[in-house]
Structure formats: structure tokens, C-alpha cells
Amino acid sequence: MKETTEISGADAIMLALQAENVEVMFGYPGGAIMPLYDSMYRFGNLRHVLSRHEQGAIHAAQGYARVTGKPGVCLTTSGPGATNLLTGLADAFMDSTPLVCITGQVNARYIGSDAFQEADILGLTTPVTKWNVRITKATDLLEALAQGFFIAGSGRPGPVVIDIAKNVFTEKIVYDYKPCTGISSYVPVPEPDEKRIRKAAEWINQAERPILFFGQGITLSGASNELRLLIEKAGMPAASTLLGLSALPASHPLNMGMLGMHGNYAPNILSARADLILAVGMRFDDRVTSDPSTFLPNARIIHVDIDASEHGKVLHTHLTIAGDARHTLSRLLEQIEPATKHEWTEEFRMLRKTEDSRVCDDDLDNGGEHIKMGAIIRKMSERFPKDTIVVTDVGQHQMKAARYYPFEEPRSFVTSGGLGTMGFGLPAAIGAKIGCPNRQVLAFIGDGGFQMTLQEIMTAIQEKAAVKIVVLNNGFLGMVRQWQELFFAKRYASTELLNPDFARVVEAMGLPSRRIDQPSEVDEAIGWLLDEPGACFLEVAVDPEENVFPMVPAGTPVSEMLLEKSNT
Question: Is the pLDDT of residue 103 over 50?
């Protein structure tokens, strides 16, 4: 195409998306963005996934981004189409998920007049995006697209919104798109300071009771191998945040499990005795620290994060390093000394045995009257391929999956961490399957969250996304009910659900479906899930009074973690 050839803004967007190696988009059409959909139809070479709600589209784009590492692309119309993205944008912003959301807007001449389906998307999305921009003339379009993709995927990833007035799609411009390689004053990946790295190595070498905390930053930077090499050389026990799960194989002998409110006993208890914490790619969320004033009372804290704004935000840290996790760990690895003592690691293993005997053995016992969430999740982990991608919604089942599904491959666990968005699980699983069609995708969803986005079953059917969907039905908003039981004298205010027969509903939608309610049915049902060639649905009636332990009651020190209900 000659440089002087003019094309429509909509056609220019389609060419720019191809230049950014976009292969699939998730969205829902409408009036303001219709010219772009017409261009998409004429081009015919980019896959579009039609969701049943814009929230479903953006969660699917999140799932796609989380498993591929590429920005998820989402399209919606103006007004309610765009406002329906807000929860997904906030979720992606909290969990550092790269998204490029293109929203239609009313014609530029009508902006500010309360036109039909007009909303101030720029103002609404400012708090929940890494960057947003409104385009009212086509000459600004290509630069904004290039910057949007660069900002979404570089440094600490995040969501971007490009709000495009309807007239821009039909205006003519010369197509001269160039992917962005840098923006003045924006430094996405700071270079770690060598003096600070030397100091960190010195402290690690001196420590007698070190622990490495790691979060999703390890996955985002591709630092799983560097993490493994460092903890092996330093003999350093490691524990992850919820979103850090799968960055280090669960079977690794130095992986001591998950931190936080419903994490593992050993890292929570022993963190109070640690003399050094190396925290990498995590942000010390309140679910990890509980009461920050009591967290890590005896430790020097080294915080490595690509985003310097996270340093000191929650905790006073003794040494901060702004830099990419992979690069920083590689340089640390050169300077730390091989470990000679292993007594500290043995303390973790002893406490793990305590947790096993007082919590896990009961959770995994499938011989009682009811099916237990932990038991069926563990059994599925034993039957599904090791590289299965597990996606969860939010609630008790989410914590059970985090605890009892051992992840061995990077990018194999997708959940809503920071925002805790119910309704995330099903559409995110669809996006994950579209992103990784050759891997099994297993979705664990609660009965509450399932009813928030169950319409996306039709998206899975239409797109032939072979997701294995498991709804763990306890008839309650389980996590809320647990807190009401423990801290509100069993006053179950608005937490008991009147549910439909989910299996029959989903079967009516056209998906193979089954329901089980007896422990003796579990093994055969798992075999059925694996044997079904496409998407299928399993409803599991589970113990309505099953709780998630251990737990740290809100605001109490993590070292006072409860192992069972009788301690409350």
C-alpha cells in the first residue's frame, strides 16, 4: 500500500491490530463502534469472540492475557457497553493484566451534550487504567493505538482504554502505523541499582532464617528459572502470594506454599521468626500482611519490584530495588554464597506436617457423607495433565483450589486476586482456552459466582472452547457464610441461595452436563470430564458447612493463624 493511500479510521485500526500481532478480540457490538465491526467483517482475518455481556468479554480478555502474556483486546460500544467494562478494568488494574480496550464513543460534535449512549468513559476509567485517551479526530488515532499497546504490555502491565468517537472510524487517514518502542518520561523497566544488589546479596549471605516471598511479578517477567536457581543456591525457603502460585513448581522441596489469610501454616507462622525477607514481584497486600504493624517484626525486608510506587506503600522496608524480577534475580544469583545450613528449612517441614494432620487430612478425606471441595479438587489434580490451566472464580472454592491443586507449570493458575471479582471464572476460562487451545482448561466455580456470568456458557459453545466447568454447589455464599458462622454467631444474613438445577439449565443451553452428590460418584465423574471431547459441565453438591482453614482473622497477626474452628 502506498503511503499516500488514504483509508478509513476503522480499516486503519484493523491493520494496526495485525501489526501488533493481535489474533483474537473479545467484544460486543453496538451503534458507536459499528463501523469497526463492519471493517472487521470485510477484513475477515481476525478472530472475534462474541460474549453475552461486556463483563464477560473483558474477563475473557483477561484470561487470554494471563495465559499468553499478550495484551487481551476488548471491543465495546459507547455508554452502557463501555461502563460494563469497569469491573474488569479494575480487576485487571489490581492484578497487573495487560489489556487494550477500544470503546466506541458518540460523534465528536455531540460529546458533552448527553447524547444517546454517551458516557464520560475517560473520567470513569481514569482510576482503574494504566492509561486512557479519547480520540476525536482520525489524525490522532494511530499514535494512540501504538502507545496503548506499548503501555499495556511494558513494565508493570495493566489495562488501557482508547475511547474513539464514531466519526473517527469513517474519517480518512494515511496509514503509516509504527509500533511504539518508547515514550518520553515513561521508563517501564528501571535498571536495578548495583550498590543495592550488592547490599541485598550481603544481607542474604548473613541471614540465618531467610524466606523468599514471591508474587505474580515472577511470572510476568519470566523469572521462574532464576527464582528456582536462587533459592536452591541460598537454601532459602520460598512462599508465594495467591497470584504467585504456579511460578515455582509445587513439588519443589523449597516451595513452602502460600502466604496470607488462607495460606499455609508454616510460612505464616515462621515469618514472625525470619531474620530476612526477600520479597520479589509482590505488593504486600493486606491479605498477606493482615495487621502491617505486627508483620515481620524481626526481619530485614528487601523489596524487589518493577514498580517503585509499591516500595514502602504498606510496610517500612529496609532495602528497595526497582527493577525487573528476572534481571534482578540473575544479578543477585551471581553474588550470593551457597548455603551450608538447612535447619531452618526443616522447621517449615515440621509445621507442614502439623497442618497436614490438623487440617489437610480432613479436607482430603472423601469417605464421609458429603463431597468435600478439597478432596475433589485434589483428585482432579491427580487425573488431569500436569500442564492443565486451572481457572477459579472467587470464594471458598478459590482458596481450596489454591491449597489443593499443585501447580507445576508457569501460567497455569488464573484467578481474580486483588479485586476478588465474583463472576470472573467462567469467562476467564473461555479466554484461557482460546489463548492455549492445546492445554486442558479446568474451571472451578462456586454456585454464587456462576450465576453472575452463566450466560457465557453460550460463548463457550459458539466458540467451541473446550473448557471443563466444575461448579461446586454448597447452596451458600460460602466465604461470607463462614465469617458469619465464626464471627457473627451464625446469623446467616442473606447468604443462603435458592439455586436452580444447574446441570439441567446448562444441558438446556446445549452443553453435556452431569450432577453428583455422593463421594462414591467422584472418580467416575472425573473420568467423564476427561473423556468428553469438548466443553462440558459438572455440578458437584458439596458439604454446605465446609470451611476454609487455616485462616487469619482480619486484623490479627499472621502468626496467630487458626488451624481449626475450635480455636476461634
Answer: yes
Task: Considering the candidates 166, 372, 400, 433, report the single residue annotated as catalytic.
Answer: 166
Would you call 479 a catalytic residue per the annotation?
yes
Which is nearest to 42 in space by CA: 7, 20, 14? 14
pLDDT of residue 566: 57
Q: Which among 116, 386, 496, 524 is annotated as catalytic? A: 116
Q: Is the pLDDT of residue 472 over 90?
A: yes
199 a catalytic residue: no
Instruction: Decide: helix, strand or coil at residue 85.
Output: coil
Residue 116 catalytic? Answer: yes
Identified catalytic residue from 18, 117, 379, 507: 117
d(CA 362, CA 365): 5
Residue indicated by cell numbers 499495556: 152
Residue type, 538: L
Q: In the chain, count H helices and then E strands.
A: 24, 20
Neighbours of 330 (CB within 10 A): 16
The vertex-549 CA angle with 548 and 553, nearest 5°, equals 95
User: Would you state the cell numbers that stand for residue 102, as one nine-digit string?
Assistant: 477500544
Is position 54 annotated as part of the catalytic site? Answer: yes
Omega of the bond leading into 80 within 30 degrees of 0 (cis): no
In the prediction, which pLDDT does 568 show?
43
Catalytic pick among 20, 54, 355, 456: 54
Nearest CA to 210 out of 135, 267, 142 is that of 267
Rg (CA), the chain: 24
C-alpha 502/C-alpha 327 separation (Å) is 48
Looking up cell 541460598 gives 234
Residue 77 contacts residue 103 (beta carbons within 8 Å): yes
Residues 52-63 have pLDDT tens digits of 999 999 999 999
Residue ranges and CATH numbers for the domains of the chain are 6-174 (3.40.50.970), 194-348 (3.40.50.1220), 371-545 (3.40.50.970)
Identify which of 353, 378, 541 has the alpha carbon closest to the alpha carbon of residue 447: 541
Asked whether residue 1 carries a pLDDT value surpassing 50, the answer given is no
- Render pLDDT for 419-468 as a digit per residue (tens, 0 to 9): 999 999 999 999 999 999 999 999 999 999 999 999 999 999 999 999 99
Q: What percent of the chain has pLDDT over 90?
A: 94
In this prediction, residues 499-507 reach a mean pLDDT of: 98
Q: How many residues does the chain have?
A: 568
Of 562, 501, 509, 566, which Cα lies nearest the Cα of 535? 509
